Amino acid sequence: MRSRFFFIVIACVVSMLVLNNIMFYWTTKDRLVGNVEQQSLMAAGNLRNAIDRYRTSVRYVEDMIGQQLRIAAIAAKDRLDPKAANVTNDELAEISRELGISHITLLQRQGDDIVGVRSSDPKEIGLSTKKWGFWFTAFQEMLAGREVTIPEGQKLPNYWSGPIAHADSDPAKIDKWGYYYDGTTDYIINPYVEDIQIKQYDALAGPDVILNKMIEDNPSLLEMTGFNYNTFGKPLKVSKSQSGDYYVSLLNNPIPFGTYSYSDRESDIANVRAAIETDKSITKVSVIGGHKVIKSFIPVQAGTSNPEEQYPYVIGVVFDYDSLERMLNDQARSLINRVLVLTFVSLVVLAIVFHLIKRNKDEAIRFTQEAYIDEVNDMFTTIRGQRHDFLNHVQTIQSFLQMKKYDDLHRYTGELMGEIRQVNDIIQIGHPAVAAIVQSKVVTAMDKKIDFRHEFAPIGNLNLGITSVDIVIIIGNLVDNAFDEVVKLPVAERVVELKCWHQAGHLLISVRNPGPVIPNEEKAKLFIPGYSTKPSGDHSGLGLAITKKRVDAYKGSITVQSDELHGTVFTVSMPLQRFVKSS
Question: Are residues 259 and 225 in contact, defined by beta-carbon separation less than 8 angstroms?
């Protein structure tokens, strides 16, 4: 009876462990798939914010170019005869070179059309504008002596500048045009430049740069795609220029950013339309070219601030489902091995108990009772320990997935069969978070006419004991504090420098700005909550206090140096948990 009882106990224990592990396997699988969807939403959100900041910056740069073109137009007017018939094309070419612009065209009304009559670019001569839509409307208003009233473009006194677009005389070029007319000439002065500055900015901080960095940092993230809701899945809208060339305008590009390699076209068209029309994200599991993937479609509705460049679009995110299944299968094999080991140990214990019972019946009865209680307690303790350990492993795997640390995840799962050891959570500062705060400060600096310089040593391969939220708070408060100081200075002296590097096991962040020297007796007060050197009511005096509290939480330090030669420098030093070598 007792042997049967012990067998039943062991069978129950093993069955409970097997069922427990199976349940956790499937629960973990569903949770990880859900986490992939959340990661898609987060990645799309980060990309959308980056695109919004990029567009804001591009509009700022484009407006500056527009203002420069107006200045060039006024300078050209002062040197040109007021009658177009008396102006030569060579004269326009010479003025263009001297002003540092691409070309100048003179537009004049001819019948019901407005035509290029003189130009430093031969392709612009005789070019009709009658079919240019709102551009032609703007020209008509200018020649009528009215200010331009259409919502599109940049409007200044006697001046209008249209959005960046393909040149009708040469669609291979994307130019920025300006148009000036003050009534003293019989023509509109049209200086324009090839959009080199915008292209350079796009190559440094455009959407493709940002999403490629996200894909590089996350091996399971296969692709990100921008779908133009207005044109994707519809016949391609091809325009014909007056030069006879065919082109697709910027607003009609069906894939405005990213790549589209993982194509399931019919399904993708339906999902893009459904995402925008329901304003809800859609996630599907698909097999494309024999590759199982998770595809998410996140809608971004059209804005209203710039109607000529806003359109609804969908961010498509493709994750590798096969890698998720491989990880789960490895985990299942690990769990099976653990169950087999525990079963073997349980059988060995049972055999020892029976052997002792046979040696002395009376003693065996007493011993069996005690051993039974001890062994059952030990067994349940083992079960609880296995359950606890399993939960820790699952939570660690989930954390590694959320932090995109797939190399560490691979090593961790390989070590589950080896010696069990406790590992501290590794929190990585993601490059997108740091890039996002720096990008936002670049835009702020542009608005405030501040020369904002930033320099970062490579930190992507370091594991830091600092959350992305905290490092953003630290950098943001220090840079904002520096901005507040330099805006008091003349524009030429408004310089703020941000540096971040690692040295001797520490992460260091410094922010420097010129300005008045801070007395030594005042330095200690800077970190007191509510204390501020700025006028009362302008600031809460909490920024530096919050920064110091965050730094102290990581056993770091923050110092301030101030002198006439170097200005004011805040330096933060925080210890790194450990270094990780590049793979």
Answer: yes
- 576 membership: H or E segment, kind and range: none
**CA 243 to CA 259: how far, in whole Å?**
30
DSSP string, 176-212: EE-EE--SSSSSEEEEEEE-HHHHHHHHHHSHHHHHH
Cα gap 278→267, rounded to integer Å: 16
pLDDT in tens, 496-506: 999 988 888 88
DSSP letter for each residue of 351-411: HHHHHHHHH-HHHHHHHHHHHHHHHHHHHHHHHHHHHHHHHHHHHHHHHHHHTT-HHHHHH
Q: Give the dihedral sign, CA 464/466/467/468.
A: negative
Residue type at 335 in one-letter notation: L
What b/e sequence results for 10-35 when a residue is b if at least 16 CB atoms lie within 10 Å of its CB, and e otherwise? beebbeebeebbeebbeebbeebbee
Using CB atoms within 10 A of its CB, is residue 298 exposed (0-12), middle (13-18) or buried (19+)? buried
Choose among 43, 46, 55, 47: nearest CA to 311.
55
Tell me how long the chain is: 583
449-463 in b/e form (b: 16+ CB < 10 A) is ebebebeeeebeebb
* Per-residue pLDDT reduced to its tens digit, 88-134: 999 999 999 999 999 999 999 999 999 999 999 998 999 999 988 89
pTM value is 0.43
How far is the C-alpha of 496 from the C-alpha of 452, rounded, in Å?
Answer: 5
* 3-class DSSP assignment, residue 456: strand
Q: 246-297, pLDDT tens digit by residue?
A: 656 777 889 988 899 999 999 999 999 999 999 998 888 888 888 888 888 9
Contact predicate 429/466, CB 8 Å: yes
The closest of 197, 207, 202 to 432, measured between CA atoms, is: 207
With cut-offs at 50, 70 and 90, classify the pLDDT of residue 539.
low
Residue 257's contacts (CB-CB under 8 Å, 6 or more residues apart) are 51, 206, 207, 208, 211, 225, 226
Tell me whether residue 379 is exposed, middle or buried, using C-beta atoms within 10 angstroms of its C-beta: 0 to 12, 13 to 18, 19 or more.
buried
Contacts 24+ apart (CB under 8 A), 420-425: 420/389, 423/396, 424/577, 425/399
- Confidence grade of residue 41 (pLDDT, cut at 50, 70, 90): confident
Token readout for 306 is 């710039």
Report the SS3 class of residue 487. coil
> Is residue 335 classed as helix, strand or coil in its secondary structure?
helix
The structure tokens listed for 7 are: 């067998």
Name 422's Cβ contacts closer than 8 Å, sequence gap at least 6. Answer: none
CA distance 451 to 258: 31
List CB contacts of 539: < 8 A, sequence separation 6 or more.
Answer: 484, 532
